Amino acid sequence: MGLKTVQEYKESLKDGRRVFYKGERVADVTTHPELSVAVETMALDYHLAELPEYHDLATVYDEALGERINRYYYLPRNGDDLLKQFDLIVASTRMGDGFIPLAHDIGSDALNAISITANMMGSQEYIQRIEQYRTYLKQTDLAVVTAMTDVKGDRLLRPSDAQQNHPDYYVHVTQRRPDGIIVRGAKVHITGAPYSNEIFVIPSRAMAEQDADYAVAFAIPVNAPGLKMVGRPFHAHITPLEFPNNRPVRVHTDALIIFDDVFVPWERVFLCGEWKHSATLVYNFALMHRRTGCAYRIPMSEQFLGVARAIAEYNGIASAPHVREKLTDLVIYLETLRSMARAACLDFVTYGGIAVPNPISTNIAKYYFANEYHNVVKIIQDLAGGLLVTAPTYKDYALPELQADLERYLSAKAGYPAEQRLRMLDLIRRITGADRETIALHGEGSLQAQRMTILAEARQVIGECVKMVEAQAEIKKA
Ligand SMILES: Cc1cc2nc3c(=O)[nH]c(=O)nc-3n(C[C@H](O)[C@H](O)[C@H](O)COP(=O)(O)OP(=O)(O)OC[C@H]3O[C@@H](n4cnc5c(N)ncnc54)[C@H](O)[C@@H]3O)c2cc1C
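^ thats the input. predicted complex w/ flavin-adenine dinucleotide below
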């Protein structure tokens, strides 16, 4: 019981789960040549908690259990709790060279969102169930991911709309039994699911009365009968065309999860038919998770600033006025994101007895980094020059008959060999790929989702501003 070791985490994945990857059923994710790389990425969360220098950040004394537990499963009561968890996500993402391990953070966002929703509903039964489940997670330190995004079908139609091709585009209850429920449907893009222990399943939208069966939230083990996962392919290794690099590759797969009449016992059901509260749960999860998403992006933005400055230096242009302007933009990007996201934790509000980051500044921080992301990548691509896509490969560089030529012609500023420049270009290609651009836009919800929340949350501020200017204009209301 208590904190899991890296080894215990890996052993826990050998449980008969049904994972498909590149057209094959995977017998064991921990030994699969590619998925095992993603397992190592998730294992970083357990590794970090074992390191003495991170012990106080990664774990916390739990008064109820009388032992140290993983900080992610600790109930946040104030801004300091939120900020420490934020700093933990930043630390683990830095350890992953800009890649988030993801064993606990997204799961803990759903855990807290469900707790808040149960408290807001005033349902003692749900409050008790989610707190029992929280205790179970504190005691077992399981890796938990969250499946929110439904496959959705026609986006403009409701889940139960008869015009949808079929009723299963959103996960829903098909049967209520004395011992639990049966669910069917599919969730998509679920990061890390094939090598986590449990999955929180929550609705992806507000529901109307006719969608009551779709207002369902629960937790299940990844090896639950009827559950199938299909992982998207990824690059698990440095290719032979890149300069050899002994740092471990960090990567995740995002899975399509099919719920083929899966049984969920009542004690793991946290919403079932209370359609009015679906929106509350979606809102609270999005809020918690956007704060988490901002934390992921800080080490990534540090990487962007680092590679931009380094390649500008190697190219000899670091002191050019337009380059200094562009580096200034990257500093503004990093520090705006960092300060807004940290301030959102300190300027917390309390929902259902749980501290949550300030809703307006969290959504603006997440929107800001996603909306500016492509401009930031554009700056790096600009500074790197065309060699970013036309450079000879490592295999060419390694040829004795070519190496001296490539060193002679592909070096730029004195003191920086061509190898250094080519290695940096390899890294830039890895961290600015098109999949990362899509993640920036859609991870934690599309841009429009944040804009809608910002406007809704700003209702009161807008009202106060209008009152202020009406007073200044001496407008008398009838
Ligand atoms: C790499 C990656 C990892 C992810 N990891 C997870 C995860 O772990 N768990 C999880 O639950 N989700 C995850 N997501 C899902 C992510 O939150 C969604 O991608 C995002 O919410 C957008 O949903 P979608 O992909 O279905 O796109 P769509 O909803 O199809 O959006 C495409 C466009 O359609 C618009 N649109 C959609 N619906 C409407 C509507 N009703 N009216 C008007 N416009 C509309 C959107 O604004 C957007 O412009 C991940 C996504 C990515 C890319």
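The radius of gyration is 24 Å.
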